[in-house]
TrEMBL record:
<dbReference type="InterPro" id="IPR005562">
    <property type="entry name" value="SpoVA"/>
</dbReference>
<dbReference type="Pfam" id="PF03862">
    <property type="entry name" value="SpoVAC_SpoVAEB"/>
</dbReference>
<dbReference type="InterPro" id="IPR014204">
    <property type="entry name" value="Spore_V_AE"/>
</dbReference>
<feature type="transmembrane region" description="Helical">
    <location>
        <begin position="6"/>
        <end position="26"/>
    </location>
</feature>
<keyword id="KW-0472">Membrane</keyword>
<feature type="transmembrane region" description="Helical">
    <location>
        <begin position="38"/>
        <end position="65"/>
    </location>
</feature>
<protein>
    <submittedName>
        <fullName>Stage V sporulation protein AE</fullName>
    </submittedName>
</protein>
<keyword id="KW-1133">Transmembrane helix</keyword>
<feature type="transmembrane region" description="Helical">
    <location>
        <begin position="85"/>
        <end position="114"/>
    </location>
</feature>
<keyword id="KW-0812">Transmembrane</keyword>
Length: 118
């Protein structure tokens, strides 16, 4: 069990280090950094490398933003096998819709409960 936590920490930390290097060294904006990390996750899943990373690191690979790119491509590929080209579009939305919906709902609740500063 300790090994699972250790590797989740290491892999998640490395993904965060990559993002921080993109901020500090490459001087990318937060939007560019997040978009690049999502695309990296998508590319890794396209080559079949992200699922083994999830199996190895667990939450260390599923919590960072790279997992969103993985989810988009993974859902699109699964639905494309079943429904053809239309599955590419529907698969992306089907897999990610619950996470996006939860983010919108919780953001709305947060906006109702707390007064913004500024």
């Amino acid at each position: 069990m300790f090994a699972t936590f250790f590797w989740a920490f290491v892999v998640g930390g490395l993904i965060c280090v990559i993002g921080q290097i993109m901020f500090d060294v490459l001087k990318l904006t937060p939007a560019h950094t997040l978009s690049t990390l999502v695309v990296m996750g998508a590319i890794l899943d396209g080559f079949g490398l992200y699922e083994p990373l999830i199996a190895f690191a667990g939450a260390g690979a599923t919590i960072p933003i790279t997992s969103f790119g993985n989810s988009l491509v993974h859902g699109a590929l699964e639905e494309a096998e079943q429904h053809g080209i239309i599955g590419v579009l529907t698969g992306m939305f089907e897999v990610t819709s619950s996470g996006i919906s939860a983010a919108i709902i919780f953001a709305f609740i947060g906006a109702l409960l707390f007064k913004p500063k500024g």
